[in-house]
Amino acid sequence: MGRLKELLRGIEDEDESTGEEVEVLADSVRQALELASGALKTDVSALDYDILQKGTSGFLGMGRQPYRVLVRASKTQDAYSDVDEIERKLSKVSSSDLSIRDVVKYADGSFKIRVTKTGVFLTVNPPTGGGQPVSLNDVNNRLFTMRIGNADMKKVEKEVARPSGKRAKIGEWTPNPEYDGSMTVEVSEDEMKVFAHFVPPRFFGRHMEVEDVVDSFKRAGVVVGINEQRIAEYLEKMEYAQPLLAAEGQPPRHGRDSSVDYKVKIDRSSINLSEDERGQVDFKNLDILENVVVGQVLAVKIPAQDGIPGRTVTNRVLPARSGKDIPMRHGKGTILSEDGMELTAEINGQVVFQAGKIVVEPVFFVKGDVSFETGNIVFLGSVVVGGSVQDNFIVKAAGNIEVKGSVQKAFLEAEGDVIVRQGIMGREEAKIESTGGSIYANFVQSANCYAEKDVIVSEGILHSKVDAGNRILCHGRRARIVGGLIRAGEEVNARVIGSDSFTRTEVRVGINPKVLQQATDLETLKRQGEEELDKIRKDVTTLTTLKTGSGGRLPQEKEELLQKLTQQKQKLETRFAEVSLELEELKAYLGMLEQKGKVCAEQTVFPGVEIYIKDRRYPVKDPYNYIKFTLEGGEIRLSEYEKPDMGEGVGKMAMLRRRR
Description:
This protein is α/β, with parallel strands linked by helices.
């Protein structure tokens, strides 16, 4: 008996042993056990034995000595069969050499014998690392214990010698239902799970196969959700201690309610900050607006889904709930398609999500200042700023811009009107532009303003550059234009122009400032081109003279420079000719324009003011009161003051005065 088994048996020997034993003489241990089984009327698997004397086969039958074996019936055989296996494995490696890492690294070979309808199969797995291979004696003992006497020993020896880990048929199945494995079926109360409880076979009884299990399920009324792969894997392991979850029903899938896929940003709680190439965060462009244009898709409805019924393992139908169809809500400024599945923008503007529906507002309201809290504003509708626009911030609008406070060193651009109630303090860097409307302000100081139509100021324009396609009007109790460059296509009209300190003030009328600026730019290009062309011509002349004086040859470096300068001269001459022609055409156009344009001062025009009407200049050398300057017959004429036609500007000027 092994040491481990002896130790365990010694602890419970009195309780486990039956006390029945017999001494047997036989040619082998197997024969002795078979004889003792009949005498003790006990199965061989329930016998324990001690070899009192080993037998010998002798020579040609001479001197044969039988085995003398003491056999006893014991209840501990089954209980300690696993202990025998553990002890046998441990005995092959010294206990001092074992560790958790060694157990993982060294694995002994293993085998299993499976009996099915198609035969008896042996699977031998090779050892890993320094593990011990399966011994033929172990396999023979197992075959003997299972009472399999028809095994092909040559095949057994072959599989043990060269283990492949694959099934090998070593014998035919001998039917004996008494020893076959069996199973019971357990169906959960809700009929959604089926458990199989297996009873392993005894001796040479056959193991159950997948089709056996499936047939048992069908007889029990289980027809849905049988997992044959899971059953096959379970049966292959031949470990029946735990029940097998072999079939599962199909739960119903309830349909989802309809939902809305928003194509625009409706969550304003998060702000996206971007970094430039140097890793600095731009706190001005916070992207807080969601601008849309006419016809842009704002949201698409995702239809409700139908439910998919479930089925229990007995094929009982489980009803499923279909999703609810929730109508897509929409607000003003949007259009819902006839089928109610798509929402588009009716106008240009800002997307606002209010009370669970999308609204497109043509006006964006900034409650306070345009600052780091709001970032730059770019909007496809109109913008109303409740406070001021701080330094270095940008406001752009496809409609109007109204600033209830002031505008500092900032940039404003609108396709409509720009209205600044408390004035513009630009510190020479502010730029206010209306590309399709007018500019209205309480005052303008040290700023750059351009309006496609009019610039109307209630108090004063001080040291600024102001352009207007039509008129520049400055009328109020303290209205005056002092310093800077003032240009209008038709009229400049103010209460006072210039100052008693003779501040230089340039006023131009009669030509649209855009055209005038274009002419100025062409004059600058022509002058710069002429200077550059003159310099290159001198260099080409110098190199050409040097080449002529040296017999028509130059060093390679200077020859390449001459060719390069010659090519540049040709390009500059071509460009200079184009600019000159364009400038001549523009001047011809200006010459054909109607002689219109006027400069009016209700009170005084001071010396230091230079007035230009078209291409005629009039320097003011003496103060003039209640005066109008016009162009007649190619000369600037003076006449009585003419009051401007304020038109719609009257209402907005009055509004500015009330809001001061």
